[in-house]
Amino acid sequence: MSDDTGGWGRNRQGESAATRHVRYDERQLHKAATGGGNSDNDSDSNSNSNSDSDSDSDSDSNSDSRSDTQQPVATCSSDAQREPTRVTRVTGKGGPLVSRIAVVGSINMDLVATVEALPRQGETVTGTSFRQMPGGKGANQAVAAAKMGATVVMVGRIGADAFGDTLLTNLAANSVETGQVLRDGRHPTGVALITVDRFGHNTIVVCPGANAACSPDDIDSAEDAIAKVDAVIAQLEVPVATVSRTFSLARAHGKLTVLNPAPVADPASVKALFQHMDIIIPNELEAEALTGVPVAHEAGGFGAATVADGSEAAPAAAALEAARQLRALGAKRVVITLGERGAVFVGPEGEIVTPAFRVQAVDTTAAGDAFVAAFTVAWIEGMPPRECMRWACAAGAIAATRPGAQPSLPARHEVEALLSAPAYLT
C-alpha cells in the first residue's frame, strides 16, 4: 500500500494547459511493446524534437523531447564520502544488468473497498466492490523491484495465520526471496483498510500487527543477506529503531541506503536517520512534514507559473526548496514525488524536474511504491539521474492505471515500452 493520494499522471479532467505530459494508454503501450508503432497522427511540431537545454553534469546524451529540467547545484561536504558502488555485472552475454536489493518493511493484507466518493466524517456510503489483495509498502516495493528485474530479498514479519500464509506464498510467486520473513505467533499479520473513489483517490488505515514487532534483532539476523545486496530500501511502517539498525548495518557493508519515509509520525526521529541515508524519496506531504515547506499546497504544474508582478516563477519551486533543505540535513540525494505534477531530484549531479505521464488514474495505492522501486533499480544499474527519474515516473504512472497494490505493479518490459513510445505534447 502507499500513502499517495494524488494521481500518478494527470487525470484528463481539469488538466492544466501549462503542464507538459506524455499521453499513454494500454493500446499505445501494447503497440510499443510489439513494434506496432504509434497510430496517433498528432501534428504537434514539438512532439518529436528536443527543445530542452538540459545541463546534465553526468553527461547524459539522451536527446529526449520530454520536459525534464536541470540546474547545477553546489556539492555538500558529505558528498566527498565514499559512494556505494553501482552494479557492473551482467546475467550473461549481452544480458541486462541485475541489481540485488533487500527490502526491510511491512507486509500487509490489503482490504480494498471501492466507492463513488470517499465518505466524510460520520458518513456511511455504499461500496461498489471489495477485494482482498497482498500489500504493505515493504512487500509492494519488493515485488515492484523484482518485476523490474532485480534479485530481491524481503526482511519483515507476518503472523502465524491465514493472511500470513497467503502473503508468503504471494512473495515467493513474485520471485521475492522470503527466507528472512519471520512468522510471529504473538501478533497477527498486518492489514490495511483502503477506500478508493472513482477518481483513484484513496484513504488508508493501517493496523500494523506483526510489522510493529519487526526489531533490530531481526535485522541482525538478516545481516548475511544484507551483506550480499547492492542496496537496502526501507519505509516507516516498521519501527524507526529497526530502520536505523538496518541503515547502520547496510552502511557498514558499503550498501546504498534508500528511505521512503512513509508515514512520517515523528519528524525528529526520521531526521535522525539521515546520517546513514544515501537517498530519501518522500511524497509531497512527507516532504512538507519534514521541512515545513508547503510542497503539497504549491499551485500549478511544471509549466512556468506567472506571479503577481508578471514575471515567471521557477517551476516546482517549493518542492525544490524542500529537497534542498532535506539535503542540508544530511541526505546525499533527495527525490520528492508530486503525484500528477511529476517529481523533482536534488543531488550533487544537479536539480531535475520531471513531469508526470498523462494517464487515466484508476487507483494510486501502489504508485509511490512502484516509483521507489523503479528509481532504485535504475540507480544501482548506473542510469543517469534524469533517466532514473523517467523510469520511476513511468512505473508510477502505469501502476496508477490499474486497481490494487501489487496487481498494479508494472513489469520491466512495460516500463521500457512506455519510455520508448513516441511522446507528444497535449
Give the topology.
Elements: E1 22-23, H1 26-34, E2 69-71, E3 100-104, E4 108-114, E5 129-135, H2 137-147, E6 151-159, H3 162-173, E7 176-184, E8 190-196, E9 202-207, H4 216-221, H5 223-227, E10 231-234, H6 240-252, E11 256-259, H7 267-271, E12 279-280, H8 284-291, E13 305-306, E14 312-313, H9 317-328, E15 333-337, E16 343-347, E17 350-354, E18 357-358, H10 367-380, H11 385-400, H12 412-420
Helix pairs in contact: 1-12, 2-10, 8-9, 10-11, 11-12
Examine the coordinates and then state which fold CATH places here, giving the name of the CATH topology of the domain at 22-33 and 54-101 and 215-420.
Answer: UDP-N-acetylmuramoyl-L-alanine:D-glutamate ligase
Strand content: 15-25%
Q: Tell me the CATH superfamily of the domain at 22-33 and 54-101 and 215-420.
A: Ribokinase
Stretches with pLDDT under 50, minimum 5 residues: 1-7, 10-67, 69-81, 88-95, 300-313
CATH domain class name of the domain at 22-33 and 54-101 and 215-420: Alpha Beta
Total DSSP helices: 12
Mean pLDDT: 79
Global geometry: globular
Q: What's the end-to-end separation, in Å?
A: 31 Å
Going across the biggest sheet, name each strand in turn. Answer: 2-17-16-15-12-11-10-3-6-7
Provide the helix percentage. 25-40%
The gist of it:
By secondary structure, the protein is of the alpha/beta class. 28% of the residues lie in helices and 20% in strands.
